Amino acid sequence: MHYIEKGIGEPLILLHGNGEDSSYFANQMDCFAEHFRVIALDTRGHGQTPRGEAPFTIRQFAEDLLSFMNQHGIEKAHLLGFSDGGNIAMVFALAHPERVGKLILNGANLDASGVKRRIQIPIEIGYRIAKLFAGMSSKAKKNAEMLGLMVHDPNVKPEELSRIQSPTLVIAGDNDMIKDKHTRLIAASIPKAELCILHGSHFIASENPIAFNNAVLKYLMK
Which residues does 204 contact at the CB level (< 8 Å), separation at least 6? Predict the structure, then answer.
């Protein structure tokens, strides 16, 4: 897996969203590196990390993260995941609770029903079209895989979140593409999770980095 790293201290792993790469966290690296060893990954099939042959699913991405941590001798790390990265972090925390320090879920969702319909409907239409042409075009196949993540994954039930042991911050924008009630459901389902709603859209880390970074650091430094 391709990654960028900066700083020293406790590991803080950053996980980007669908169709993005580690550069999404350009406004976070320097700030967080003043306090942590910050590692921003490119997920399988994103950025400079190759697609490989394994399944293209959130659960596979979580296992990729475990392999990365094992390869780099990281026994435990704080995780900050945005969008699908938040879903990866959530699934990872359920599967490997002993490997997670604090957990920060930014714009995560449990399933497709958590996304506002005006956003989700075009995604589902695009997925069906891309899947139709996937056998004839490598570009269509890639699009089908990317969009498929937002149609089929992560499928986590709210009651499963009660198993998360890590101190958790759930953070989202007040105009997020994730439904407000869905974000609040996630926060309410994780034991003692804190909820932070900031002004902005789904992409608050890039749109409103000062407020986002302050909220994250305040939580991590407690």
Answer: 106, 107, 171, 172, 173, 176, 198, 211, 212
Please name the helix (run of DSSP H) or strand (run of DSSP E) that holds residue 141, with its range, or none: helix 138-152
The CB-side HSE value for 192 (13 A sphere, CA atoms) comes to 7
For residue 102, give both structure tokens: 């604090």
**pLDDT of 135 over the 90 cut:** no
- In the numeric block, which tokens belong to residue 184? 């609040």
Which residues, including other chains, have CB under 8 Å from residue 97's CB and lie 6 or more apart? 163, 164, 165, 166
* Rg (the chain; Cα; Å): 16
User: Distance (Å, rounded) from C-alpha 191 to C-alpha 161?
Assistant: 8
The arrangement of strands across the sheet holding 168-173 comes to: 3-6, 37-41, 11-15, 77-82, 100-106, 168-173, 194-198
pLDDT tens-digit series, residues 156-167 = 999 999 999 999
- The residue type at 125: I
Q: Which of 23, 144, 11 is nearest to 85 (CA)?
A: 23
What is the maximum span of the chain, computed from C-alpha positions, in angstroms?
53
Give per-residue pLDDT as tens, 38-90.
999 999 999 999 999 999 999 999 999 999 999 999 999 999 999 999 999 99
Output the pLDDT for position 148. Answer: 94
Q: Rounded to two decimals, what is the model's pTM?
A: 0.96
